[in-house]
Structures are given as C-alpha cells and as structure tokens.
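Archive transcription. Copying these from loose printouts into the bound notebook so they stop getting lost. Printout 1 of 2:
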Amino acid sequence: MIAPMDTGPRLRIDKWLWAARLFKTRTLAAEAVDLGRVRVNGERVKPAREARVGDRLEVQTGEQRSEFVIRALSAQRGPAPVARRLYEESADSRMRRERRQEQLRYSAEPARSIKGRPTKREGRQLRSVRTPPSGGD
C-alpha cells in the first residue's frame, strides 16, 4: 500500500520571503535566492523550493546577514506586524542588526553627501582648481 502524501499547505520560498516582507517584490526575492543570497538550512536552494515551518533561513542583503526561523506560512503579503509573526529572528542576528544601526547612527557615511554629477558651475570650479591658469607671456 502506498502511504498518502502530505497535503499540508505548499508555498514557494520566494513567495514566502515576499509575504514576510523581507523583500519588496517577489522578483527581488527570486533573484536573491538564485544568486545564493538566501540559504535554507545552510544550503543554496532554488526559488521554487517549498518553505516549511521550522526551516532556518540565512538572508544576505547588502552587507547585512540575517538569520530567521520560519514560524508560519502565508501566501498573502499583509501589514508589517502580521508579517513579523511569520518568522523569528535569531538573537545573534538581532544583536548584529542593532549594532549596525547604532554604528550608522553615530558615523556619517562620506558617500551619502555626494549627490550625483556636478553642476556646470561646480564643474568650472573643479577645472579651475585642477588646471593652472594660462598666462599670456
């Protein structure tokens, strides 16, 4: 006799990441999984892998690495307080995130003050500083 298959709820990992508000769009979630920035139980997976309650996730976003445990499944993206109930962040991950936020609060990022290309006026000023004035001797 063949044992019946588990008929519990099935949900793709990329859809769960989107519903849990860890990524802004499902496409971004799928790209992160494809690029190996999301690991499930320590392994690289594909976006179609089923999410299961109890799975451990490691999510790399930029320079920050977060660790979560799936506590519930949801295919709908709801408000942030509801989304937070879908997972539990590890204490170590929470400490790293808070420490990083503290560092960012007290240290100014030099690159943030740069606002794109210089204006014409700023360009002229830069060129005048870099090149010596031409003399008419």
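Printout 2 of 2:
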Amino acid sequence: MLSQTAEYALRVVTYLAQQPPDEAVPAIAMASKVRVPRNYLSKILHQLAREGLLVSVRGRSGGFRLARAPEKIRLADVVTAFEPTAIVRSCILGRARCSESSPCGAHDEWKRVVQARDRFLLDTVVADVVR
C-alpha cells in the first residue's frame, strides 16, 4: 500500500525518534540500523530535510535529527514527502474513471481499505508507533 521509499522513510523517522532529541545521527551509522542501502538512505534523508521533517547538522558531530518532536509529526507527513498523492484514492484496477457514479467492481471495498489507511496515516504520529 506504500512505496518502498515511503516505508524506508518511516523506518528512518521512527529510528530517529528513538534517539536523544539533541543528538544528530550520521547517515553511515543509521544505514544498517534502519536496513536501507546507504546511497538510497542519503536521498531519503535529504528529502525529509527539504520537507522540514529532519534537520541536517554539518560538521564533526553532524548527521540528522528530527526537526520537531515525534508527537508533532504525523505518519502522513512522512509518506506524502515521497508519495504526494498517497492520501488521494486511485482505482485499484487502474481505471482512469472510477468514482461513486461510475465505480469499478472493487470500488466500494477498496474505498473502505484506503479510507482506513488514510485515517491511520493522518491520525497517527511518530510517537504513537515508537512507544
């Protein structure tokens, strides 16, 4: 239901939420902990920083840390940094036109699944999943 990149990003953010808030974690130290290839991790970290979810700290004790408290970051904020349309429903069968007035055979059931996923992403903060 989520892209691999969005799943990796969630791993990164939840890992950082478990670190001391004032400590920046170097990407190289994070890669094996979150099980994300280092080159791919770098791109994810920088995108999360551009979105304002992480802070990039330069220098000897540099790395990345959360830009806000885990209680202030919704899972939807992380996911939509990589899937801008993640909260917008699309047809599971790939139909260009699938709506209430012209539904596909899976429309009603899929709509319930997507609404539950969206509600979870919008209503759940990072702190909720790292407790």
